[in-house]
Amino acid sequence: MLRSRYNSTVHAIVAAAFAAGAITTVAIVATQDWEAPGRLVLAAVALLFGAVSFRLSRLRVVLHADHVELVNPLRTHRIPWREIDAVEAFVFAGWRVRVWSGGRARVAFGLSQYSKYTPARPGDDVDEHAPKWLSQGYHELRDTWQERRRVSG
Questions:
Q1: Chain-centre distance of CA 120, in angstroms?
Q2: Measured between alpha carbons, how far is residue 67 from residues 45, 64, 87, 130 in Å?
Q3: How far apart are CA 28 and CA 26, in angstroms?
Q4: Where would I find the Low molecular weight protein antigen 6 PH domain in this sequence (predicted)?
C-alpha cells in the first residue's frame, strides 16, 4: 500500500478537531441560545472541514489480488490488473501515481508533499528523491502490475 502515515495522521487529527469544535458549538447553542443561527452555520462549516480532512487522511494506493485501488478525496478508482497499460510516479504539487488504462489516466494524488529532504519538485526521480516508503511502494506496484500482465497475457 502506498500511503503517507504522516499526512494521514495530521489530516485525521485536524478532522477530529473540527468535529469536536462542531459538536461543542451545537451543544452550546442547544443549552444556551437557540437564537444563534450564526453559530449553527459555524458548526456546519466546521463539520464540513472535518469531513474533508477525514477524506484527505484516506488517500492511498492499495494493491489487491485482482485490481489496484486509487483512493482520492472524491472518488475511488478500482482498475483490474489486466486493463492497466502503464504505471508511473511523478511530481506535480507533491508525489502522485498515474495509472493508464484504455488510453485514460487515473491519478492518485496527495501521497506525499515531500521528497527525502526537501519539498517535492517537478523532475524529481522516484528512486533518487522520493521518500523510501513511496519508492518501495511504487516499485511494488510496478512489479505486481508487470507480473499480473505476464500471467494474464
A1: 16
A2: 36, 5, 13, 24
A3: 5
A4: 58-89
Domain region containing 131: 60-152
pLDDT tens digits, 33-91: 666 677 778 888 888 888 888 888 888 899 999 999 999 888 999 999 999 999 998 88
Same domain, 88 and 147: yes
Q: Which residue has the cell 498515474?
A: 98
Same structural domain, 13 and 68: no
pTM value > 0.70: yes
Cell numbers describing residue 45: 462549516
Boundary-marking domain end, from 24, 41, 56 = 56
CATH number at residue 120: 2.30.29
3-state secondary structure of 107: strand
Distances (CA, A) of 151 to 34, 64, 101, 140, 147: 65, 15, 18, 16, 6
Q: What is the tally of structural domains in the chain?
A: 2
Q: Are residues 52 and 67 in the same domain?
A: no
